[in-house]
C-alpha cells in the first residue's frame, strides 16, 4: 500500500503554484524545490513552464542542472510542461542552450508561430481515457523529431505535443491551467508505479537506489 508520493515542483522560474495544487488534487504531496539537495527526498519531479533559456542559465549557475541530470538519469520520474519539455529534450532545433536532457527528442521552441502564440485546443489523448483533454498552449514548443523509445501521447496539427519515455512525461501545453486533472493523475500513477518498483527491489534485497551520489 503506497501513501501519498512526494512530488517536487521546480520553483526556480515560471509557474509552479498551479502544479502544486493539481498534484495535491490527485493524491500527491507537493513541495517546491529550489536547491539541489531538495531533490534527494522526492518520488517525482515537475519541471514547469516558463522561459527555458533563463531556467538553463539559473540552473547551470547553481549546480542544479548537473544534479537534475543525475537524478533523472537514476530514474526519478519527471514531468516537464512547455519549457520543462524543452529542458528534458536532447536538443532544440536552434541549439545553443543549456538543457537537462534525458528524452530522445529534438524540440522546436515557439513552434506554433507568433500569430498563434497562445491558444487552446481539445486534444485526443487516449492514454488518459474519456473525453478530449483541454490544452492551453503558451508560446509552446512541439517535438520535431524523436527516437523509437519515445511514445507520442497526443498531437496538435500533426505535431507531437505530449509524449512519454520510461518514467519521463512531457507536454507542450499547460494542464495545470485547466481544471482537468487527468494528465497530472497520469504522472502521479507513473510516480506510484516507480515507488512500488523500488520497494519491490528493496524487498528482494536489491541495491537501495538513491537519486544522488
Ligand atoms: N517559449 C518558452 C521557451 O521557449 C516556453 C513557454 C512556456 O513554458 N509557456 O522556453
Keywords:
12 strands, 5 helices, binds glutamine, 213 residues, 7-stranded mixed β-sheet
Secondary structure elements and pairings:
Blueprint: E1 6-10, H1 17-25, E2 29-33, E3 44-47, H2 52-62, H3 64-73, E4 78-81, H4 83-87, E5 91-92, E6 105-108, E7 118-123, E8 133-138, E9 142-146, E10 151-156, E11 159-165, E12 168-171, H5 182-203
The structure holds glutamine (GLN).
Glutamine binds next to helix 4.
Describe this structure in words.
With 213 residues, the protein is α/β, with parallel strands linked by helices. Helices cover 27% and strands 27% of the residues. Glutamine binds next to helix 4. Glutamine binds at residues 49-52, 82-83, 86, 109-110, 138-139.
Quick description:
With 213 residues, this protein is an alpha/beta fold.
Give the terminus-to-terminus CA distance. Answer: 28 Å
Output the radius of gyration.
16 Å
The topology string of helices and strands comes to EHEEHHEHEEEEEEEEH
Total number of strands: 12
Q: What value does the average pLDDT take? A: 93
Major β-sheet profile? 7 strands, mixed
User: Which ions, cofactors or small ligands are bound in this entry?
Assistant: glutamine
- Beta-strand share of residues: 25-35%
Instruction: Tell me roughly what share of residues is in helical segments.
Output: 25-40%
Shape: globular
Number of helices: 5
User: Which strand order do you get reading across the main beta sheet?
Assistant: 2-1-3-4-12-11-10
Helix-strand category:
alpha/beta
- Model regions low in confidence, pLDDT < 50 over at least 5 residues: none
Amino acid at each position: 500500500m503506497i501513501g501519498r508520493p512526494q512530488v517536487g515542483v521546480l520553483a526556480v522560474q515560471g509557474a509552479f503554484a498551479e502544479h502544486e495544487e493539481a498534484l495535491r488534487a490527485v493524491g500527491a504531496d507537493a513541495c517546491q524545490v529550489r536547491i539541489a539537495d531538495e531533490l534527494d527526498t522526492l518520488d517525482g519531479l515537475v519541471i514547469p513552464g516558463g522561459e527555458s533559456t533563463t531556467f538553463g542559465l539559473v540552473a547551470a549557475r547553481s549546480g542544479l542542472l548537473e544534479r537534475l541530470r543525475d537524478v533523472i538519469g537514476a530514474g526519478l520520474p519527471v514531468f516537464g510542461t512547455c519549457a520543462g519539455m524543452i529542458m528534458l529534450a536532447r536538443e532544440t532545433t536552434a541549439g545553443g542552450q543549456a538543457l537537462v536532457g534525458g528524452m530522445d527528442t529534438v524540440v522546436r521552441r515557439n513552434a506554433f508561430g507568433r500569430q498563434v502564440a497562445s491558444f487552446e485546443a481539445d486534444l485526443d489523448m487516449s492514454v488518459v481515457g474519456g473525453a478530449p483533454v483541454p490544452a492551453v498552449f503558451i508560446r509552446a514548443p512541439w517535438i520535431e523529431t524523436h527516437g523509437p523509445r519515445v511514445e507520442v501521447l497526443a498531437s496538435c496539427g500533426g505535431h507531437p505535443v505530449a509524449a512519454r519515455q520510461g518514467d519521463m512525461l512531457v507536454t507542450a501545453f499547460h494542464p495545470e491551467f485547466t481544471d482537468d486533472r487527468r494528465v497530472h493523475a497520469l504522472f502521479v500513477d507513473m510516480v506510484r508505479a516507480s515507488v512500488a518498483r523500488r520497494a519491490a527491489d528493496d524487498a528482494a534485497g536489491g541495491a537501495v537506489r538513491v537519486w544522488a551520489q
